[in-house]
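Q: Given only this backbone (506 positions), what sequence would you predict?
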Protein backbone atom coordinates (compact mmCIF):
# COMPACT_ATOMS: atom_id res chain seq x y z
CA UNK A 1 0.00 0.00 0.00
CA UNK A 2 2.86 2.31 0.88
CA UNK A 3 4.49 1.60 -2.50
CA UNK A 4 1.25 2.45 -4.29
CA UNK A 5 0.99 5.69 -2.32
CA UNK A 6 4.54 6.67 -3.37
CA UNK A 7 3.81 5.86 -7.00
CA UNK A 8 0.67 8.01 -6.87
CA UNK A 9 2.63 10.84 -5.29
CA UNK A 10 5.36 10.82 -7.94
CA UNK A 11 2.84 10.45 -10.77
CA UNK A 12 0.85 13.42 -9.47
CA UNK A 13 4.03 15.47 -9.06
CA UNK A 14 5.21 14.70 -12.59
CA UNK A 15 1.76 15.56 -13.98
CA UNK A 16 1.76 18.89 -12.12
CA UNK A 17 5.27 19.74 -13.29
CA UNK A 18 4.53 18.80 -16.90
CA UNK A 19 1.32 20.87 -16.94
CA UNK A 20 3.08 23.84 -15.40
CA UNK A 21 5.99 23.49 -17.83
CA UNK A 22 3.67 23.38 -20.83
CA UNK A 23 1.85 26.49 -19.64
CA UNK A 24 5.04 28.42 -18.86
CA UNK A 25 6.67 27.25 -22.08
CA UNK A 26 4.28 29.24 -24.26
CA UNK A 27 6.06 32.21 -25.75
CA UNK A 28 3.95 34.79 -27.66
CA UNK A 29 7.11 36.07 -29.34
CA UNK A 30 7.95 32.68 -30.79
CA UNK A 31 8.35 32.80 -34.55
CA UNK A 32 7.17 29.88 -36.64
CA UNK A 33 9.30 28.75 -39.60
CA UNK A 34 8.11 29.76 -43.05
CA UNK A 35 7.47 26.13 -44.03
CA UNK A 36 5.08 25.61 -41.08
CA UNK A 37 3.25 28.86 -41.78
CA UNK A 38 2.87 28.00 -45.46
CA UNK A 39 1.57 24.55 -44.55
CA UNK A 40 -1.06 26.00 -42.21
CA UNK A 41 -1.99 28.63 -44.78
CA UNK A 42 -2.52 26.04 -47.53
CA UNK A 43 -4.72 24.03 -45.20
CA UNK A 44 -6.66 27.18 -44.30
CA UNK A 45 -7.27 27.92 -47.99
CA UNK A 46 -8.09 24.32 -48.91
CA UNK A 47 -10.71 23.97 -46.18
CA UNK A 48 -12.42 27.25 -47.08
CA UNK A 49 -12.47 26.41 -50.79
CA UNK A 50 -13.81 22.92 -50.06
CA UNK A 51 -16.49 23.65 -47.47
CA UNK A 52 -17.41 27.33 -47.14
CA UNK A 53 -20.90 27.74 -48.71
CA UNK A 54 -20.61 31.49 -49.37
CA UNK A 55 -16.97 31.92 -50.27
CA UNK A 56 -17.85 33.62 -53.57
CA UNK A 57 -21.18 35.16 -52.52
CA UNK A 58 -19.96 38.75 -52.39
CA UNK A 59 -16.46 38.34 -53.81
CA UNK A 60 -16.02 36.65 -57.22
CA UNK A 61 -13.74 33.61 -57.40
CA UNK A 62 -11.02 35.38 -59.38
CA UNK A 63 -10.91 38.12 -56.74
CA UNK A 64 -10.81 35.61 -53.86
CA UNK A 65 -8.00 33.75 -55.67
CA UNK A 66 -6.12 37.04 -55.86
CA UNK A 67 -6.51 37.67 -52.11
CA UNK A 68 -5.57 34.08 -51.25
CA UNK A 69 -2.42 34.42 -53.35
CA UNK A 70 -1.66 37.82 -51.85
CA UNK A 71 -1.94 36.44 -48.32
CA UNK A 72 0.39 33.57 -49.17
CA UNK A 73 2.91 35.97 -50.72
CA UNK A 74 3.24 37.75 -47.36
CA UNK A 75 4.73 34.66 -45.74
CA UNK A 76 8.37 35.37 -46.60
CA UNK A 77 9.88 35.34 -43.12
CA UNK A 78 9.17 33.56 -39.82
CA UNK A 79 6.16 35.07 -38.00
CA UNK A 80 4.70 35.17 -34.53
CA UNK A 81 1.19 33.85 -34.01
CA UNK A 82 -0.21 37.39 -33.94
CA UNK A 83 1.50 38.31 -37.19
CA UNK A 84 0.20 35.18 -38.90
CA UNK A 85 -3.27 35.75 -37.51
CA UNK A 86 -3.27 39.18 -39.14
CA UNK A 87 -2.47 37.58 -42.51
CA UNK A 88 -5.36 35.14 -42.18
CA UNK A 89 -7.70 37.87 -40.93
CA UNK A 90 -6.87 40.04 -43.93
CA UNK A 91 -7.90 37.22 -46.29
CA UNK A 92 -11.00 36.15 -44.35
CA UNK A 93 -12.28 39.71 -44.35
CA UNK A 94 -12.54 39.59 -48.15
CA UNK A 95 -15.19 36.83 -47.91
CA UNK A 96 -17.59 39.38 -46.38
CA UNK A 97 -19.01 36.82 -43.96
CA UNK A 98 -19.45 37.91 -40.36
CA UNK A 99 -19.57 34.29 -39.17
CA UNK A 100 -16.11 33.46 -40.56
CA UNK A 101 -13.34 34.80 -38.36
CA UNK A 102 -9.84 33.92 -37.17
CA UNK A 103 -9.13 33.36 -33.48
CA UNK A 104 -6.08 32.96 -31.27
CA UNK A 105 -4.77 29.53 -30.41
CA UNK A 106 -6.00 28.06 -27.13
CA UNK A 107 -2.49 28.36 -25.69
CA UNK A 108 -2.36 32.05 -26.57
CA UNK A 109 -5.72 32.68 -24.92
CA UNK A 110 -4.56 30.88 -21.77
CA UNK A 111 -1.49 33.09 -21.78
CA UNK A 112 -3.60 36.25 -22.13
CA UNK A 113 -5.75 35.22 -19.16
CA UNK A 114 -2.85 35.65 -16.76
CA UNK A 115 -0.31 37.87 -18.54
CA UNK A 116 -0.11 41.45 -17.34
CA UNK A 117 0.54 43.17 -20.62
CA UNK A 118 0.72 46.81 -21.52
CA UNK A 119 -2.56 48.05 -22.94
CA UNK A 120 -3.84 50.79 -25.20
CA UNK A 121 -5.43 53.02 -22.53
CA UNK A 122 -8.52 54.35 -24.32
CA UNK A 123 -11.94 53.03 -25.15
CA UNK A 124 -13.03 54.54 -28.47
CA UNK A 125 -16.44 55.08 -30.06
CA UNK A 126 -15.99 55.05 -33.82
CA UNK A 127 -18.31 56.09 -36.65
CA UNK A 128 -17.70 57.79 -39.99
CA UNK A 129 -14.51 59.82 -39.60
CA UNK A 130 -15.17 60.43 -35.91
CA UNK A 131 -13.38 59.00 -32.89
CA UNK A 132 -14.67 59.77 -29.38
CA UNK A 133 -13.16 58.73 -26.06
CA UNK A 134 -15.56 56.55 -24.06
CA UNK A 135 -13.18 55.40 -21.33
CA UNK A 136 -9.63 55.95 -20.09
CA UNK A 137 -7.75 53.42 -17.97
CA UNK A 138 -5.19 56.09 -17.04
CA UNK A 139 -7.18 57.55 -14.18
CA UNK A 140 -4.70 60.39 -13.64
CA UNK A 141 -5.35 61.69 -17.17
CA UNK A 142 -7.46 64.85 -16.83
CA UNK A 143 -7.43 65.66 -20.56
CA UNK A 144 -8.75 62.69 -22.51
CA UNK A 145 -12.06 62.36 -20.72
CA UNK A 146 -15.25 60.71 -21.95
CA UNK A 147 -16.62 62.67 -24.91
CA UNK A 148 -13.26 64.04 -26.13
CA UNK A 149 -12.97 64.06 -29.94
CA UNK A 150 -9.67 62.63 -31.22
CA UNK A 151 -8.17 63.73 -34.52
CA UNK A 152 -5.15 61.43 -34.80
CA UNK A 153 -3.05 58.84 -32.96
CA UNK A 154 0.69 58.71 -33.64
CA UNK A 155 0.14 60.64 -36.86
CA UNK A 156 -2.65 58.43 -38.22
CA UNK A 157 -5.97 60.24 -38.70
CA UNK A 158 -9.30 58.68 -37.82
CA UNK A 159 -9.96 57.97 -41.49
CA UNK A 160 -6.57 56.30 -41.96
CA UNK A 161 -7.03 54.20 -38.83
CA UNK A 162 -10.50 53.16 -39.96
CA UNK A 163 -9.40 52.18 -43.46
CA UNK A 164 -6.49 50.13 -42.14
CA UNK A 165 -8.39 48.36 -39.36
CA UNK A 166 -11.37 47.55 -41.57
CA UNK A 167 -9.02 45.41 -43.68
CA UNK A 168 -8.89 42.95 -40.76
CA UNK A 169 -12.47 43.03 -39.44
CA UNK A 170 -15.16 40.73 -40.76
CA UNK A 171 -18.72 41.76 -41.60
CA UNK A 172 -21.77 40.47 -43.44
CA UNK A 173 -21.90 41.64 -47.03
CA UNK A 174 -20.96 45.27 -47.49
CA UNK A 175 -22.35 46.55 -44.21
CA UNK A 176 -19.79 48.71 -42.40
CA UNK A 177 -21.89 49.37 -39.29
CA UNK A 178 -20.80 46.12 -37.66
CA UNK A 179 -17.13 47.01 -38.10
CA UNK A 180 -17.60 50.44 -36.57
CA UNK A 181 -19.50 48.94 -33.67
CA UNK A 182 -16.94 46.18 -33.11
CA UNK A 183 -14.18 48.77 -32.74
CA UNK A 184 -16.45 50.67 -30.34
CA UNK A 185 -17.13 47.71 -28.05
CA UNK A 186 -15.14 47.97 -24.84
CA UNK A 187 -11.44 48.23 -25.62
CA UNK A 188 -11.54 46.40 -28.96
CA UNK A 189 -10.10 49.41 -30.75
CA UNK A 190 -6.99 49.28 -28.59
CA UNK A 191 -6.62 45.54 -28.96
CA UNK A 192 -6.63 45.75 -32.76
CA UNK A 193 -4.46 48.88 -32.74
CA UNK A 194 -1.86 46.92 -30.79
CA UNK A 195 -2.17 43.92 -33.09
CA UNK A 196 -1.78 45.93 -36.31
CA UNK A 197 0.46 48.86 -35.34
CA UNK A 198 2.22 47.56 -32.26
CA UNK A 199 2.30 49.48 -28.99
CA UNK A 200 5.04 51.84 -27.90
CA UNK A 201 5.29 53.20 -24.36
CA UNK A 202 3.72 56.53 -25.29
CA UNK A 203 1.06 57.76 -27.69
CA UNK A 204 1.07 61.11 -29.50
CA UNK A 205 -2.58 62.16 -29.66
CA UNK A 206 -4.17 65.20 -31.27
CA UNK A 207 -7.61 66.08 -29.94
CA UNK A 208 -10.14 68.92 -29.82
CA UNK A 209 -10.82 70.81 -26.62
CA UNK A 210 -14.21 72.19 -25.52
CA UNK A 211 -13.82 75.23 -27.74
CA UNK A 212 -12.98 73.13 -30.77
CA UNK A 213 -9.30 74.02 -30.72
CA UNK A 214 -6.83 71.38 -31.85
CA UNK A 215 -4.45 70.30 -29.08
CA UNK A 216 -1.70 67.74 -28.63
CA UNK A 217 -0.99 65.47 -25.69
CA UNK A 218 1.44 62.65 -25.01
CA UNK A 219 -0.09 59.84 -22.97
CA UNK A 220 1.50 56.67 -21.62
CA UNK A 221 0.11 53.26 -22.41
CA UNK A 222 -1.40 51.48 -19.45
CA UNK A 223 1.06 49.23 -17.60
CA UNK A 224 -0.64 47.10 -14.91
CA UNK A 225 2.75 46.34 -13.33
CA UNK A 226 3.28 50.03 -12.48
CA UNK A 227 -0.32 50.83 -11.49
CA UNK A 228 -0.01 51.60 -7.79
CA UNK A 229 -3.44 53.16 -7.35
CA UNK A 230 -5.94 51.11 -5.37
CA UNK A 231 -8.98 50.24 -7.42
CA UNK A 232 -12.28 51.00 -5.81
CA UNK A 233 -13.82 47.64 -4.95
CA UNK A 234 -17.11 49.32 -4.15
CA UNK A 235 -18.02 49.47 -7.83
CA UNK A 236 -17.32 45.82 -8.43
CA UNK A 237 -19.95 43.12 -8.38
CA UNK A 238 -19.48 41.12 -5.20
CA UNK A 239 -20.67 37.78 -6.40
CA UNK A 240 -19.29 36.03 -3.34
CA UNK A 241 -21.97 37.74 -1.21
CA UNK A 242 -24.78 36.46 -3.41
CA UNK A 243 -26.36 33.05 -3.34
CA UNK A 244 -26.17 30.83 -6.40
CA UNK A 245 -29.83 31.52 -7.11
CA UNK A 246 -29.31 35.28 -6.80
CA UNK A 247 -26.33 35.17 -9.17
CA UNK A 248 -28.40 33.31 -11.75
CA UNK A 249 -31.27 35.79 -11.41
CA UNK A 250 -28.89 38.70 -11.80
CA UNK A 251 -27.29 37.15 -14.90
CA UNK A 252 -30.67 36.50 -16.48
CA UNK A 253 -31.87 40.03 -15.70
CA UNK A 254 -28.78 41.48 -17.37
CA UNK A 255 -29.40 39.24 -20.38
CA UNK A 256 -33.12 39.83 -20.82
CA UNK A 257 -35.64 41.82 -18.84
CA UNK A 258 -38.97 43.61 -19.19
CA UNK A 259 -39.78 46.94 -17.54
CA UNK A 260 -43.29 48.41 -17.77
CA UNK A 261 -44.44 52.01 -17.47
CA UNK A 262 -48.16 51.50 -16.88
CA UNK A 263 -48.86 55.24 -16.82
CA UNK A 264 -47.43 55.65 -20.30
CA UNK A 265 -48.68 52.24 -21.42
CA UNK A 266 -45.17 51.46 -22.61
CA UNK A 267 -42.95 48.42 -22.04
CA UNK A 268 -39.16 48.28 -22.41
CA UNK A 269 -37.71 44.88 -23.27
CA UNK A 270 -33.94 44.43 -23.17
CA UNK A 271 -32.84 41.40 -25.16
CA UNK A 272 -29.08 40.90 -25.39
CA UNK A 273 -28.98 37.39 -26.82
CA UNK A 274 -30.97 34.63 -28.48
CA UNK A 275 -28.64 31.96 -27.11
CA UNK A 276 -30.02 28.96 -25.26
CA UNK A 277 -29.57 28.68 -21.52
CA UNK A 278 -31.25 31.99 -20.76
CA UNK A 279 -34.82 30.85 -20.27
CA UNK A 280 -36.03 32.81 -23.27
CA UNK A 281 -39.06 30.64 -24.05
CA UNK A 282 -40.46 31.16 -20.59
CA UNK A 283 -39.43 34.81 -20.62
CA UNK A 284 -41.29 35.46 -23.88
CA UNK A 285 -44.37 33.56 -22.71
CA UNK A 286 -44.60 35.46 -19.42
CA UNK A 287 -43.71 38.83 -20.98
CA UNK A 288 -46.33 38.77 -23.71
CA UNK A 289 -48.94 37.42 -21.32
CA UNK A 290 -48.23 40.41 -19.05
CA UNK A 291 -48.37 42.86 -21.97
CA UNK A 292 -51.71 41.39 -23.00
CA UNK A 293 -53.20 41.48 -19.50
CA UNK A 294 -52.07 45.05 -18.86
CA UNK A 295 -53.10 46.14 -22.36
CA UNK A 296 -49.76 47.83 -23.03
CA UNK A 297 -49.94 49.88 -26.23
CA UNK A 298 -46.22 50.41 -26.93
CA UNK A 299 -43.33 47.94 -26.81
CA UNK A 300 -39.69 49.00 -27.21
CA UNK A 301 -37.25 46.11 -27.79
CA UNK A 302 -33.55 46.89 -27.42
CA UNK A 303 -31.54 44.63 -29.75
CA UNK A 304 -28.40 46.75 -29.97
CA UNK A 305 -26.24 44.28 -28.00
CA UNK A 306 -27.84 41.14 -29.40
CA UNK A 307 -25.30 39.24 -31.49
CA UNK A 308 -27.72 36.40 -32.19
CA UNK A 309 -27.85 32.80 -31.00
CA UNK A 310 -30.42 30.09 -31.57
CA UNK A 311 -32.72 30.77 -34.53
CA UNK A 312 -35.47 28.89 -32.70
CA UNK A 313 -35.57 31.63 -30.07
CA UNK A 314 -35.61 34.47 -32.61
CA UNK A 315 -38.36 32.64 -34.50
CA UNK A 316 -40.42 32.39 -31.33
CA UNK A 317 -40.16 36.14 -30.74
CA UNK A 318 -41.10 36.75 -34.38
CA UNK A 319 -44.29 34.71 -33.91
CA UNK A 320 -45.37 37.01 -31.07
CA UNK A 321 -44.93 40.14 -33.24
CA UNK A 322 -45.47 39.27 -36.90
CA UNK A 323 -48.98 39.42 -38.41
CA UNK A 324 -48.56 36.86 -41.20
CA UNK A 325 -47.08 33.41 -41.73
CA UNK A 326 -43.38 33.36 -42.60
CA UNK A 327 -40.45 31.14 -43.55
CA UNK A 328 -36.94 31.21 -42.14
CA UNK A 329 -35.36 30.55 -45.50
CA UNK A 330 -36.06 30.32 -49.20
CA UNK A 331 -32.89 28.25 -49.42
CA UNK A 332 -30.59 26.72 -46.82
CA UNK A 333 -27.82 24.47 -48.05
CA UNK A 334 -24.31 23.14 -47.51
CA UNK A 335 -21.80 22.35 -50.26
CA UNK A 336 -20.82 19.01 -48.68
CA UNK A 337 -21.56 16.78 -45.71
CA UNK A 338 -18.03 15.70 -44.91
CA UNK A 339 -14.51 16.99 -45.40
CA UNK A 340 -11.16 15.53 -46.37
CA UNK A 341 -9.79 17.59 -43.50
CA UNK A 342 -12.12 16.30 -40.81
CA UNK A 343 -9.36 15.73 -38.25
CA UNK A 344 -8.80 19.50 -38.06
CA UNK A 345 -12.52 20.35 -37.78
CA UNK A 346 -14.25 20.32 -34.42
CA UNK A 347 -16.76 17.44 -34.02
CA UNK A 348 -16.63 16.76 -37.75
CA UNK A 349 -18.04 13.22 -37.39
CA UNK A 350 -21.11 14.41 -35.46
CA UNK A 351 -21.73 17.28 -37.86
CA UNK A 352 -21.59 14.79 -40.72
CA UNK A 353 -24.07 12.45 -39.03
CA UNK A 354 -26.47 15.29 -38.31
CA UNK A 355 -26.34 16.51 -41.89
CA UNK A 356 -27.06 13.01 -43.19
CA UNK A 357 -30.36 13.11 -41.31
CA UNK A 358 -31.46 16.69 -42.03
CA UNK A 359 -30.21 17.36 -45.57
CA UNK A 360 -30.73 15.86 -49.01
CA UNK A 361 -28.77 16.37 -52.20
CA UNK A 362 -30.59 18.27 -54.95
CA UNK A 363 -30.01 18.68 -58.68
CA UNK A 364 -27.80 21.71 -58.02
CA UNK A 365 -25.34 19.44 -56.21
CA UNK A 366 -25.97 21.15 -52.86
CA UNK A 367 -27.19 19.53 -49.65
CA UNK A 368 -30.43 21.30 -48.75
CA UNK A 369 -32.06 21.58 -45.34
CA UNK A 370 -35.48 21.05 -46.86
CA UNK A 371 -37.58 21.43 -43.71
CA UNK A 372 -36.80 25.11 -43.32
CA UNK A 373 -37.10 25.75 -47.05
CA UNK A 374 -40.66 24.39 -47.01
CA UNK A 375 -42.03 25.14 -43.56
CA UNK A 376 -44.16 28.21 -42.80
CA UNK A 377 -44.46 29.44 -39.23
CA UNK A 378 -47.73 30.93 -38.01
CA UNK A 379 -48.13 33.96 -35.70
CA UNK A 380 -48.93 33.14 -32.09
CA UNK A 381 -52.62 32.84 -31.31
CA UNK A 382 -52.29 33.40 -27.55
CA UNK A 383 -50.99 36.76 -26.33
CA UNK A 384 -49.94 37.90 -29.79
CA UNK A 385 -48.81 41.52 -29.54
CA UNK A 386 -50.64 43.96 -31.81
CA UNK A 387 -49.57 47.26 -30.28
CA UNK A 388 -46.86 49.55 -31.67
CA UNK A 389 -43.38 48.01 -31.65
CA UNK A 390 -40.10 49.93 -31.73
CA UNK A 391 -36.91 47.98 -32.37
CA UNK A 392 -33.62 49.59 -31.35
CA UNK A 393 -30.90 48.27 -33.70
CA UNK A 394 -27.22 48.82 -34.38
CA UNK A 395 -24.00 47.23 -35.55
CA UNK A 396 -24.05 44.55 -32.85
CA UNK A 397 -27.49 43.35 -34.01
CA UNK A 398 -26.36 40.25 -35.83
CA UNK A 399 -27.22 36.75 -37.06
CA UNK A 400 -30.50 35.49 -35.52
CA UNK A 401 -31.29 39.06 -34.46
CA UNK A 402 -31.21 40.10 -38.11
CA UNK A 403 -33.61 37.25 -38.98
CA UNK A 404 -36.12 38.66 -36.49
CA UNK A 405 -35.67 42.32 -37.44
CA UNK A 406 -35.84 41.50 -41.15
CA UNK A 407 -38.99 39.42 -40.77
CA UNK A 408 -41.01 42.20 -39.11
CA UNK A 409 -39.51 45.14 -41.00
CA UNK A 410 -42.17 46.94 -43.05
CA UNK A 411 -45.03 45.77 -40.85
CA UNK A 412 -47.37 48.68 -40.19
CA UNK A 413 -47.03 48.66 -36.40
CA UNK A 414 -43.24 48.09 -36.36
CA UNK A 415 -40.63 50.87 -36.46
CA UNK A 416 -36.87 50.27 -36.52
CA UNK A 417 -34.93 53.01 -34.74
CA UNK A 418 -31.15 53.37 -34.72
CA UNK A 419 -28.57 52.13 -37.22
CA UNK A 420 -28.20 49.45 -39.86
CA UNK A 421 -27.79 45.97 -38.39
CA UNK A 422 -24.43 44.25 -38.57
CA UNK A 423 -26.06 41.14 -40.00
CA UNK A 424 -27.09 41.05 -43.67
CA UNK A 425 -30.76 41.44 -44.60
CA UNK A 426 -30.63 39.11 -47.62
CA UNK A 427 -29.04 36.16 -45.83
CA UNK A 428 -25.91 34.80 -44.19
CA UNK A 429 -23.56 31.85 -43.79
CA UNK A 430 -24.18 30.18 -40.46
CA UNK A 431 -26.39 27.56 -38.81
CA UNK A 432 -23.63 25.03 -37.97
CA UNK A 433 -20.28 26.70 -37.28
CA UNK A 434 -17.48 24.35 -36.17
CA UNK A 435 -14.02 25.57 -35.22
CA UNK A 436 -11.03 24.59 -37.35
CA UNK A 437 -7.61 24.30 -35.68
CA UNK A 438 -4.46 24.67 -37.77
CA UNK A 439 -1.90 22.04 -36.68
CA UNK A 440 1.35 24.04 -36.60
CA UNK A 441 0.35 27.39 -35.10
CA UNK A 442 -2.83 26.28 -33.28
CA UNK A 443 -4.70 29.24 -34.76
CA UNK A 444 -8.43 28.66 -35.13
CA UNK A 445 -11.06 29.89 -37.54
CA UNK A 446 -14.84 29.52 -37.70
CA UNK A 447 -16.28 27.59 -40.61
CA UNK A 448 -20.02 28.09 -41.25
CA UNK A 449 -21.51 25.04 -42.99
CA UNK A 450 -24.76 26.48 -44.41
CA UNK A 451 -25.68 29.34 -46.68
CA UNK A 452 -29.07 30.86 -45.90
CA UNK A 453 -31.08 33.09 -48.21
CA UNK A 454 -33.99 34.43 -46.19
CA UNK A 455 -36.12 35.80 -49.02
CA UNK A 456 -34.90 35.74 -52.61
CA UNK A 457 -37.24 38.64 -53.46
CA UNK A 458 -35.24 40.96 -51.21
CA UNK A 459 -32.66 43.20 -52.80
CA UNK A 460 -29.25 41.57 -52.66
CA UNK A 461 -27.26 44.72 -51.98
CA UNK A 462 -25.10 43.38 -49.18
CA UNK A 463 -26.57 45.67 -46.54
CA UNK A 464 -28.04 44.91 -43.16
CA UNK A 465 -31.59 45.66 -42.10
CA UNK A 466 -31.92 49.41 -42.49
CA UNK A 467 -33.67 51.47 -39.80
CA UNK A 468 -36.87 53.36 -40.51
CA UNK A 469 -35.58 56.18 -38.32
CA UNK A 470 -31.81 56.69 -38.53
CA UNK A 471 -30.19 57.83 -35.27
CA UNK A 472 -26.41 58.27 -35.26
CA UNK A 473 -24.16 58.85 -32.24
CA UNK A 474 -23.08 62.35 -31.23
CA UNK A 475 -20.13 63.50 -29.17
CA UNK A 476 -22.41 65.46 -26.85
CA UNK A 477 -24.63 62.45 -26.16
CA UNK A 478 -21.62 60.25 -25.41
CA UNK A 479 -20.14 62.88 -23.12
CA UNK A 480 -23.37 63.24 -21.15
CA UNK A 481 -24.24 59.54 -21.22
CA UNK A 482 -27.50 60.11 -23.11
CA UNK A 483 -29.08 57.12 -24.88
CA UNK A 484 -30.26 59.03 -27.93
CA UNK A 485 -31.85 56.02 -29.64
CA UNK A 486 -34.11 55.35 -26.66
CA UNK A 487 -34.83 59.06 -26.42
CA UNK A 488 -35.81 59.19 -30.10
CA UNK A 489 -38.11 56.15 -29.83
CA UNK A 490 -39.73 57.67 -26.74
CA UNK A 491 -40.29 60.95 -28.59
CA UNK A 492 -42.02 59.06 -31.42
CA UNK A 493 -44.28 57.30 -28.92
CA UNK A 494 -45.22 60.57 -27.20
CA UNK A 495 -45.88 62.32 -30.52
CA UNK A 496 -48.08 59.48 -31.72
CA UNK A 497 -49.93 59.33 -28.39
CA UNK A 498 -50.68 63.07 -28.52
CA UNK A 499 -51.87 62.76 -32.10
CA UNK A 500 -54.18 59.86 -31.21
CA UNK A 501 -55.52 61.72 -28.19
CA UNK A 502 -56.20 64.81 -30.31
CA UNK A 503 -58.00 62.71 -32.90
CA UNK A 504 -60.22 61.10 -30.25
CA UNK A 505 -61.19 64.53 -28.87
CA UNK A 506 -62.38 65.64 -32.29
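A: Predicted residues:
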Amino acid sequence: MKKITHLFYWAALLFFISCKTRKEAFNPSKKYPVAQLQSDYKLFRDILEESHPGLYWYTPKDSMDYFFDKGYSRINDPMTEMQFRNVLSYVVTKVNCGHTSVRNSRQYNEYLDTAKLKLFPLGIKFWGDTMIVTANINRKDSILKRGTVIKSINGATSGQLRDTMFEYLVSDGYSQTGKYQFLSNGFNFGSWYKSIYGLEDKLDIYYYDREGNEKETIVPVYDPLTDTLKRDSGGKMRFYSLTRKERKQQRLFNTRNLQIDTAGSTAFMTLNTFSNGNGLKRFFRQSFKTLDEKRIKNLMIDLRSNGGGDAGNSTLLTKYIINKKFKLADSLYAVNRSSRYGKYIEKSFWYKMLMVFVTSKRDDGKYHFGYFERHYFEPKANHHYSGDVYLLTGGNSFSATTLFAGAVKGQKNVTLVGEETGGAYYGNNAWMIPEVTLPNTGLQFRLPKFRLVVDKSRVKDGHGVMPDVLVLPTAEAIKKGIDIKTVKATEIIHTKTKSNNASSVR
